[in-house]
Amino acid sequence: MNYKLLGRSGLKVSELCLGAMGFGTEGGWGAEKEASFAIMDAFAEAGGNFFDTANVYKLGTSEKIIGEYLGNHDRDYFVLATKYTLKDNITNPNASGNNRKNMMRSVEESLKRLKTDFIDVLYLHIWDNITPIDEVLRGLDDLIKQGKVTYAAISDTPAWVVSKGNTLAELMGWSQFIALQVEYSLLARTAERELIPMAKHYGMTVTPWAPLAGGALTGKYLRGEQGRVKAESNRRNNRAQTITEAVVDIATELGVSESHVALQWMMDRDFSCIPIVGATKIDQLNDNLRAVDTKLSPEHFKKLNEVSAIELGFPGDFFNEDAVKMNSFGGFYDKVEKR
């Protein structure tokens, strides 16, 4: 496992992040504590040090399992990320949302479940369209000054909100968001319209959730396996089938699994990107870990990029059209490209 810096920070994290949403069996699925421990052991033995969880995963059981595991291991070796926003109890009207009251309450509860004095990376989980971004940033900065949180990050939030937040934080001397967690995969590239260009501008690392599109990119639906995803979803429609078939073809050519191809495509983007790989079984994790050794050729990347390309919409597509026009009027963009 290689290590990368997380955003514009000096924090060193493994090139794959272990997602712990499946630690616990609430909801009728997931891994028992012993299986979760084995998964974390295998991840650590491979050089992995980056865990991702949330206050609501498995009704708090995910954090409890990680907390018990860390109690028997070197806490400082691991970089632990969790989240706040979603309701983890029904005690009061402010037990959810991005507001400062819920932030402080949620962090205190997470610290108890995780049995730790500090959270390395705290994500705002989902934008609530209610709380002012300056309230969020001041609260996060206070937690960082208190030593309860080390770095701030944000997830599932419009690009304009994140952009305003990081600009305001820079102006006020508050801690900026260093990572952006969004859905991103060969089947879900809409983040390339606004979110990913914004992340590149601010030097944020993108930590995609569902990098294998819920397993769709492993080819399981092509093999006739069933799942919780409906056939008409964007993971099982005709476009998804075409993209998955391209992944399968490349995997067959290289003699690797489909997940290796899908993950390596993501790990070799032109921006900082660390996929979150979830696992409820040890063989799932071991398969995903081998993605770091997979090498795709330029032809492979071209094939995957073309088959999964999306329309950027306005103004992205308009900019592309404008570039063509400008090139025909004196080669302006050619000169910029050379610089």
UniProtKB/TrEMBL annotation:
Record bears the keyword Translocase: no
Q: Which residues form a coiled coil?
A: none
Q: Which residues form the NADP-dependent oxidoreductase domain?
A: 15-308
Q: What GO MF terms are annotated?
A: oxidoreductase activity
What InterPro entries does this protein's entry cite? AKR_Detox_Biosynth, NAD(P)_OxRdtase_dom_sf, NADP_OxRdtase_dom
Task: Enumerate the CDD domains for this protein.
Answer: AKR_AKR9A_9B (cd19080)
A cellular component term, taken from the record's GO annotations? cytosol
- Keyword tags: Oxidoreductase
* Entry protein name: Aldo/keto reductase
Organism name: Mucilaginibacter rubeus
